[in-house]
Specification:
homotetramer, alpha/beta, 11 helices, 19 strands, globular
């Protein structure tokens, strides 16, 4: 049994907790942190968690938990990881590891210094399909890998902070490119060094400063090319596909829209269909068990098994660092219009360590997650990019699982992005 | 935590044990029974089970287990259930419950008499896709159900006893029709009484006395029609599909061959692709996590949660009994060529009870399961139905997960079906 | 070049004419008949046809056409065929050939007596996919055929007369079962005699006297089983699928809903998506070239090539007669609840002949065809089966290609079915 | 009726002629040219063409044909077009128009100067799916187009000259990128100017000097991005997919591998499955009517209808020129590693004209086309890139429709690429 502190009560914290408590699990979240005492308390009560806190340092240090899970907005990862490492606790951090490779490197150094167990919560390489496809690839079914394609597109994320490049570190690339890059890298082989990256990105639809659509290419040692496509402008649900091509074969994975589950309904059922599904009538493509299809279950299995067995998990902070280094090169290329080298610091490596003290944290919990789009097939997103009431631009609206409508708004005067729930 | 005795070390026992021990489970198989002491011992050692037995009564009575799982051939279900009920243990029995409704009814009465918790291990209504589709149906997305189709076809089962109608209770209908019937019934609504059944069945390919292909229709109170198609003659892998149609919508489920995972390999990888896959080169349709896709994980979750909560599981012995009653009507119709009424005894109902003594069990464990076909796309199954060496007809050959080749043979003189492993 | 008289200006006449004039064709419709002079005139003008008539006998006799195409309601096929045969003209008749085998036999005898060329316009065995699948089957790719499934379901036909069993000869079976039966028979082999049929049918949804949903089984000489599923109660578009299974392989054909063309649109485009598509927003499955996918193009190619070459077409009046004989057995079985023998008269065979006089025709043209459902994914068909205004029951409403709404109504007093266009 | 001269007797000439003569066409090829008199004669005899020639000038000038179709290798397009324009004949030229934009521009000027009708035979924008998807896009179903993806990959072309960059003008980009680029451009809108291109390309597998794999991005005026993926290294058949994404919707087209036709065969049928299919056992994805699915039928319909109506066809020489200009930018970018501007000469425009004289042509006919890969799923392409006998490297082997095996060989001493048929 693993005793866990969950940092963050947003949708990612919620998904993680549900997964950890789900099925016939022996693990428990014993402590939850949110910047807001009220949210922490409510979350604890709903999920059956005995203890909660609205003080980050306290949540990490003063708990019987052995493992800290960081489910906070990107700008808070470094501080939380540092505190956990200092407290000598195992730490699992959601994706992306940092907003930049420099931040990721600091996190990697923090856990190496104190020797704590650390895992990078990159769920999409852990989907059962991906795990099996990776095994077939390792077994030689593809021959030498020549090309990978990974695509994650949907109508845009749920929480305000995602749309604020200062807090998130960028746009669609930092949000989803991190998945696609690591998927491609996993098929090509982690022993192959990423050499250079090229990236196109643009703000095509939303009134934001970050890219809402990007396409990138990463060239690896040995000649393989890895392609990613990420977008917050896609219509029709969440498109989550991977393809691999090698000298001996090819693989196609579809994780969300064409998985052997198709439904037409003229009546609807008034509820949630699948993450980021658009509409709830007509032809729909529901997902059986989302936590499973998105890799959460097998990810935590590997993480906690590894922690118990004192071995490395499949996804380490080093992997998170490499992904950040590739993303850095992509952002640089987006500006320069040319290939940019992927810079991985010499001497940086995955590692473990022993234990550590702590510092004082603060800052809001991650209010993110994976709710469903409100936009029905029928309505046409009237507000996107247009003037909303009271000096705000509407970036996006969506229906929460509890039926309320959330709006992401941009203050026309200050440019600040906020969210509002009606 | 649930402490379990596993009866049977065949592939179904193996799949069940893997599922129960899998992911981050808190449950454990603490005792295993096989007719063969050697197999019991080996199984216990491989799966980390502390205790084993080759005496059925002993395995049930003299164990710290609280739950007995019956994973034995069909002709041994009744005895095992009776012993478990008498021993006051919760009992979960694999599908079909009985070989006939009469047998199933005896089992139902045995558990009702002693009041033990009882669950019917019908995994395919527990696949995550099916669970979600059932929920949507209950929520009204389909309107009133008019039609269901459930199809399970593959090139034939793995263990000799399946091919012996005296032991199994029939052919493809008893083997797989039980799944399809319960799937259809679940969508139509368990409150709707099955009225009558029509069935076509034939022995089209294999040199056996039971049907290797059948199509059935069940008409329900309210007018819905439920169609099943089962076959041991199908080529191309395991075809596992359900369809539902109602006044407001339609659902299509594909559980195995078109689930968003497609692979072409010219090289192969020398191993197992998916249950009953044919061949390992060319275009293949692997399955990410078979235990998940086949419903094992969610089935045991419901069973063990129900047992802990002292509530009924979704699938009870009563459900198993109704399925057997429908199968009886199908076999009768196959002979009469007309609709036959489904006869459900008055006063029979799902139920629980309290506790009980025990009797002396014996008999072989179930040698069944779900291994992969050996027949590659390339070779043409030369032996099927033709004379094998030494007075045997070859019914079927297949490759076991460990690489050995198993043959199902019929003694031309005695008609007895045996299996041989090379 | 073939000179053709088109009998009927309904949607089937329109589809046929478009196909015959389409692409770079050398054939021409030179004469068109409708009971209504106005419709005949309008049709002729729209399609560039030089001559029209509202007198059936005149349309057949007094024309420079060499070929007469019967695109009239089922109750007028016999008379039209008789007139054409008497006039010594080649005659192509739409499906089903007759309302009963007796009628079909009269038609067969009429063309045999005068020796005119005759073809049965069963388009769905002519889809390019079906033609190729049939070729692969003949080449041995499937081994011996064991099973076929053919399914045609949609929300119901377009013209009033279809819903009137007296005129059409029945319900969904006579409308669509004729396709499914001939598809199955073609895969199993036309040299195999259909022995017996079983059929379930019911009126599940619509306020009509004929079956709106049916499932049938036909057993052939040699043991193959052929299954059909037809429905006017299906939601989600037109489901048109065939499956074949043999000792060496299997085939799956999807003609309409999953053909490699998928579209999500939140905006719609205000128009026609595909025949019997429901709704025009959300996920849609359009069809590239419907005439091609439905077999019209290759059907007329075979018919006209055969006529020029003085050989038999792939589908003859004899085939139409066999299909009618199977349908007769199905209707008998629906009532008797048991297998019924398929009765094919001795001495009946496909054939040709030479020439003939003519008689006086009359009667309305076929107002049928393949328009699109109006029912959007969003609305719930409020009227189906419920009381409409003025003493009428609403059977069905649909949007015509020209945007108008057509209703099929049943007079509550007289039971008569009429159509109304708003 | 159109009277046509076919230049080239390779597989493209053969496919074109079959299409032009197919169905119930009124058009005829009346004259055929091949550099080899024997091939010209054989082709004429097989296809029922009354006249043949092995002299290019003669074939163009001395014929009753009104239209000349250029189905020759890329290096002979310019000369053939010039001769046709001078002879005052309408000219249709296969893709790509030129090897470079400069060549394409000369062709454009040649037809403009003499005013002859000219069409660019870009078949893949004419597939019925693409035509319908383009119509929906024009009707607003996608909103503003943001992204297109077009992919054409297979195991490599069939004729020696394709592998020789001097003759073909490049590798996979010039061969297939021309399709993908024009597909993307058609969805984005031909009124949108292509601004700049980025391209990655490499020689990953084959022992050639040109790219056998490339990925390109084209940015259009208005901000849309168009992505292409082309490869001669792909395994598993011919992958031909397009995707479109706009502010209101998305489209997915699959032209070859997942089109609603799936077949498993353990027996095979000893023949051709589909263009560039790999293997003929196991799961296969046949195509009903390839000429239809690949757009040939609708392409020639548009071309000949346009010619008769004296209007422009959908694809003009100007379109071919723009495509060449984009390809030029891609090749430049492949070397520079940065975005390169797409240079379209001012004053260049689509156009027509009136008539012209002629010059003396010569040169080999195009030996290309679309045969099927020999490589079965089982064998591992032992020769590719390895030393063949007698100082040759084997680039590729394939089975021709007539069963013979063709090898593409590279002379190790001279580097020359030749083909050999066994």
């Amino acid at each position: 049994m693993a005793k866990i502190s969950m940092l963050g009560t947003g949708l990612i914290g919620s998904f993680y907790t549900q997964t950890l408590h789900g099925l016939r699990s022996r693990d428990r979240v014993v402590n939850v942190y949110s910047r807001s005492a009220e949210r922490a308390k409510t979350f604890a009560s709903e999920k059956g968690i005995p203890r909660w806190s609205s003080d980050l340092r306290d949540a990490i240090q003063n708990s019987e938990s052995e493992i800290v899970i960081v489910g906070l907005p990107n700008d808070l990862h470094l501080e939380a990881v540092r505190l956990a490492a200092e407290a000598g606790k195992a730490v699992l951090c959601t994706k992306p590891l940092g907003r930049t490779a420099a931040e990721a490197r600091e996190m990697l150094q923090a856990v190496e210094k104190t020797g704590v167990f650390a895992g990078y919560l990159e769920d999409l390489v852990y989907t059962p399909k991906t795990l099996k496809a990776l095994a077939s690839t390792r077994n030689g079914a593809m021959g030498r890998i020549l090309w990978t394609r990974s695509r994650e597109t949907h109508p845009g994320p749920h929480s305000a902070w995602f749309w604020d490049a200062a807090r998130s570190g960028g746009g669609a690339i930092i949000d989803m490119g991190c998945h696609c890059i690591e998927i491609g890298r996993s098929f090509i082989g982690k022993d192959k060094r990423p050499l250079r990256a090229f990236c196109w990105g643009a703000t095509q639809v939303h009134p934001i400063k970050a890219e809402d659509h990007a396409i990138g290419l990463i060239e690896y040692e040995g000649g393989a090319i890895s392609q990613f496509e990420v977008s917050w402008t896609f219509r029709g649900g969440m498109d989550l596909r991977d393809e691999v091509s090698g000298t001996e074969g090819t693989i196609r994975l579809d994780h969300f829209l064409r998985t052997g589950f198709e439904m037409f309904t003229a009546a609807g059922e008034g509820g949630y269909v699948a993450e980021k599904a658009e509409g709830n009538i007509g032809w729909l493509f529901p997902v059986g068990d989302e936590a499973h299809e998105l890799g959460y279950i097998h990810m935590f299995q590997d993480m906690l098994d590894a922690w118990e067995a004192r071995r490395e998990p499949m996804e380490t902070f080093y992997d998170g660092y490499v992904v950040n280094a590739i993303i850095d090169a992509c952002y640089k290329s987006m500006k320069s219009g040319r290939w940019e080298p992927v810079e991985i610091a010499a001497g940086v490596a995955a590692g473990g360590g022993k234990q550590a003290p702590a510092t004082r944290p603060k800052g809001p919990e991650k209010a993110s997650g994976r709710p469903q789009e409100t936009r029905s097939g029928a309505d046409q997103d009237p507000g996107r990019g247009k003037s909303g009431k009271g000096g705000f631009l509407v970036i996006k609206t969506e229906r929460l699982p509890d039926g309320r409508i959330k709006s992401i708004l941009k203050d026309k005067a200050t440019g600040k992005v906020v969210e509002k729930i009606d």
